[in-house]
């Protein structure tokens, strides 16, 4: 009998909720097959089985049993499987399916004297869209820090950081969590926070699923705004664009925008952005009509939230803020919509792409944190160099400030107060005649971008990192952070069974 199957049968003596088991020679059940792939659609890590836990103690039993197996069985939590490079996979092991199943596990929001804030407790596998709908329905509240797309799990984004245009003000999602319940790699269920078991708390936030499985998160809330004024303005001068972005993220009083992002437009002809409802085909904007034909343009994206009661002053406030900026005159595109529609904007694009069969295609995404001091070099070498004039998807660029992040978390950032997220969110089109849309072409460009950073001495750090081998990971973390990461691993997951899809550690007896 193959040893992996033998191990699995031993595990079954301990747990009873393994919903699908693939054994040698039998046809593979659909759950293990779908847990083998992710949004990236470029890797395939077939697990032996998928566990759909009904409580944290199911997970604890699984982990304790997996550690006894010889060799120990890999276990990965999987939220919504929206990783790119198999990070939520557990080849030859067990995937713990945290999301799905239809059962909501959220308590009513609480107005806490202790934290001086309102919060909600949610199951680690909840999707952010469901958290939003729940908190809105229970008191008109909402989390403060977001991702651009809400069909991601709480545990999945907290294991990375969770960033969007609010991060400059509130910090990433990991800076907006008060408390966690975590099942560690030793199979112990531990409550942790800044004050209680703080080492585990900081390890798990941004911890790439290496130290434990988040089963509950206590998330900060605020009264939800009702409406959003959403503005896009264009630049042809990169220095003006970044100067304005950096100026805007320094504003934290009443007179500020609530969301600051941006993207790069290198495509000739129509502005091609699947995240947009602005530049829809029925109202195409020709870059040439605003003097950008053949050149790279930069789009600054901003929002100002408001309530009906302050609707009278919103025009004036926005105009006052825009007056200070140096964008191309007459390139202001504005729309106004309910807050929830703004937060859920990417889902609309998802539905359109799904209808055309363009959602479930390979996504060779690359996300980098680039230090502000080198962003002009990055522009010259990448946006106006390596990319050419065809991008195959949006390229995000927006700055954040380091002091809104907690340096004790496991996240790795460049060593500068201001750094940019640059996200190449590109899709390959299988079978296309255009070679620039192939997976090979786009993956090769990603390699060129990384090589360019290395040779130009730009200390860029991958966000949602994917590295091959121990030495690359060590370089990613840098000596101090790597030492901490290893020490925490030895403390919380000594058998190295968790998060093997990340390829950082391998199970050891
Ligand atoms: P999975 O892919 O299922 O898991 C990711 C990692 O987290 C794995 O290592 C897994 O083992 C671990 N993990 C999952 N659940 C748990 C848990 N409960 N406890 C411990 N570890 C766990 N990110 C941003 O920051 N901002 C964005 O705006 C943004 N937009 C996106 C838009 C799209 C369309 C997509 C596909 C991704 C986007 N992402 C964004 C990236 C996304 O945040 C990460 O890929 C995130 O990990 C996805 O969440 P998930 O639930 O699918 O996680």
Written overview of the protein:
This protein is an alpha+beta fold and 509 residues long. It has three domains: 109 residues, 2-Layer Sandwich (Uridine Diphospho-n-acetylenolpyruvylglucosamine Reductase, domain 2); 114 residues, Uridine Diphospho-n-acetylenolpyruvylglucosamine Reductase, domain 3 (2-Layer Sandwich), CATH 3.30.465; 237 residues, FAD-linked oxidases, C-terminal domain (Vanillyl-alcohol Oxidase, Chain A, domain 3, 3-Layer(aba) Sandwich). It has 14 helices and 18 strands. The strands form four sheets. Strands 5, 6, 7, 8, 9 and 10 form a six-stranded antiparallel sheet that branches. Strand 5 and strand 6 form a beta hairpin. Helix 12 runs antiparallel to helix 13. It is globular. About 3% of the residues have low confidence. It binds flavin-adenine dinucleotide (FAD). Flavin-adenine dinucleotide binds next to strand 3, helix 5 and strand 10.
> What's the CATH H-level homologous superfamily of the largest domain?
FAD-linked oxidases, C-terminal domain
How many angstroms separate the termini? 21 Å
Which strand-content bin applies to the residues? 15-25%
What Rg is obtained from the alpha carbons, in whole angstroms?
Answer: 23 Å
Q: Outline, from the CA principal axes?
A: globular
Query: Which cofactor or ligand species appear?
Result: flavin-adenine dinucleotide
Chain oligomer state: single chain
CATH topology (fold) name of the largest domain: Vanillyl-alcohol Oxidase, Chain A, domain 3
**Uncertain spans:** 16-27, 280-284
CATH class of the largest domain: Alpha Beta
Number of helices: 14
> What characterizes the major β-sheet?
6 strands, antiparallel
* Proportion of residues in helical segments: 25-40%
pLDDT averaged residue by residue = 90
Domain count: 3
Q: What is the number of strand segments? A: 18
The computed structural class is: alpha+beta
């Amino acid at each position: 009998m193959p040893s992996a199957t033998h191990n699995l049968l031993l595990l079954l003596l301990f747990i009873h909720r393994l919903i699908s088991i693939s054994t040698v020679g039998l046809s593979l059940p659909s759950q293990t097959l779908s847990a083998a792939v992710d949004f990236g659609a470029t890797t395939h890590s077939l697990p032996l089985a998928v566990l759909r836990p009904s409580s944290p103690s199911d997970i604890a039993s699984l982990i304790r049993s997996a550690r006894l197996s010889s060799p120990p069985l890999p276990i990965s939590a999987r939220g919504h499987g929206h990783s790119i490079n198999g990070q939520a996979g557990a080849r030859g092991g067990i995937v713990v399916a945290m999301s799905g199943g239809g059962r909501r596990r959220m308590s009513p929001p609480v107005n806490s004297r202790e934290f001086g804030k309102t919060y909600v407790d949610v199951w680690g596998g909840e999707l952010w869209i469901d958290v939003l709908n729940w908190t809105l329905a229970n008191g008109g509240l909402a989390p403060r820090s977001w991702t651009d797309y809400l069909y991601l799990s709480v545990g999945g984004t907290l294991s990375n950081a969770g960033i969007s245009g609010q991060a400059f003000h509130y910090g990433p999602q990991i800076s907006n969590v008060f408390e966690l319940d975590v099942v560690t790699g030793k199979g112990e269920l531990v409550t942790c926070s800044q004050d209680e078991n703080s080492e585990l708390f900081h390890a798990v936030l941004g911890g790439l699923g290496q130290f434990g499985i988040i089963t509950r998160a206590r998330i900060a809330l605020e009264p939800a705004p009702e409406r959003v004024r959403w503005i896009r303005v264009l630049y042809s001068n990169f220095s003006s664009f970044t100067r304005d972005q950096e100026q805007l993220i320094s504003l934290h009083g009443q007179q500020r925008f609530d969301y600051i992002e941006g993207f790069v437009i290198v495509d000739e002809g129509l502005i091609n952005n699947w995240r947009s409802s602005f530049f829809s085909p029925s109202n195409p904007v020709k870059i040439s009509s605003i003097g950008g034909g053949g050149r790279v343009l930069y789009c600054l994206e901003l929002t100002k939230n408001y309530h009906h009661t302050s609707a009278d002053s919103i025009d004036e406030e926005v105009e006052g803020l825009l007056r200070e900026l140096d964008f191309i005159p007459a390139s202001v595109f504005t729309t106004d919509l309910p807050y929830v529609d703004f937060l859920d904007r990417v889902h609309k694009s998802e539905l359109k792409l799904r209808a055309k069969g363009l959602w479930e295609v390979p996504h060779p995404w690359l996300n980098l944190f680039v230090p502000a001091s080198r962003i002009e070099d990055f522009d010259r070498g990448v946006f106006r160099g390596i990319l050419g004039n065809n991008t195959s998807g949006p390229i995000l660029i927006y700055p954040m400030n380091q002091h809104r992040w907690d340096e004790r978390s496991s996240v790795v950032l460049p060593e500068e107060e201001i750094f940019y997220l640059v996200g190449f969110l590109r899709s390959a089109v299988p079978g296309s005649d255009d070679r620039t849309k192939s997976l090979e072409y786009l993956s090769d460009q990603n390699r060129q971008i990384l090589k360019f950073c290395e040779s130009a001495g730009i200390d860029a750090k991958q966000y949602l990192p994917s590295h091959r081998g121990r030495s690359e990971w060590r370089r990613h973390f840098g000596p101090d952070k790597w030492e901490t990461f290893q020490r925490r691993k030895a403390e919380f997951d000594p058998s190295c069974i968790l998060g093997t899809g990340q390829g950082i550690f391998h199970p050891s007896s």
